[in-house]
Amino acid sequence: MVPSKLNLKQEKRNWLDLPSDVTFNILNRIGMVDILENAQKVCAAWRKICKDPAMWRVINMNDIPRFGTRLFPIEMCKHAVDRSQDQLVDITASAEVSAVKMCKHAVDRSQGQLVDITIVFLYDDDLHLYVADRYVS
């Protein structure tokens, strides 16, 4: 017999009560774009974790849409609408974001602790040099 929802006692939990290493592990799985554009803006505790250089030891640019080196608000909006599964209430688009700029920002956050980087979009030699210049062996 399956218990009814009325019989289940739902306990409210506060995400801030999680140990920081558990929060780090969760945030590390959501993707670079979501960390830079969303998660770090949730609260001071998450921002501190998102700015930790250890978060940026491995940078995977796979979550950047594959339509060139620029992220266009219209494409990001379409992606957000698709992910909302008809639950979208409001959406606001801002100016286009450079994928190269976002990559450089992630590399800077590693503060020399970068171990691995995956870049899936078109990039120029300047980005390659930028990453190489900040790599500490």
Overview of the structural elements:
With 137 residues, the chain is mainly alpha-helical. The longest helix has 12 residues. Helix 1 packs across helix 3. The strands form two sheets. Strands 1-4 form a two-stranded parallel sheet. 40% of the residues lie in helices and 7% in strands. The protein is flat and about 55 Å long. The model has no long low-confidence stretch (mean pLDDT 76). The chain has six helices and four strands, in the order αααββαβαβα.
Present the secondary structure layout.
Blueprint (H helix, E strand, L loop, with lengths): L19 H9 L3 H6 L6 H7 L7 E3 L9 E2 L1 H12 L12 E2 H12 L5 E3 L6 H9 L4
Parallel strand pairs: 1-4
Antiparallel strand pairs: 2-3
Helix pairs in contact: 1-3
Number of helices: 6
Total number of beta strands: 4
Mean pLDDT: 76
Helical residues, percent: 40-55%
**In one word, what is the shape?**
flat
- The neighbouring-strand order within the major sheet is 1-4
Span from first to last CA? 59 Å
Instruction: Write down the Rg.
Output: 18 Å
Order of helices and strands: HHHEEHEHEH
Low-pLDDT parts are none
Largest sheet: 2 strands, parallel
Range of strand content: 5-15%
Structural class: mainly alpha
Descriptive tags:
two-stranded antiparallel ribbon; flat; F-box_dom; mainly alpha; single chain; SCF ubiquitin ligase complex binding; F-box domain-containing protein; 137 residues; F-box-like_dom_sf
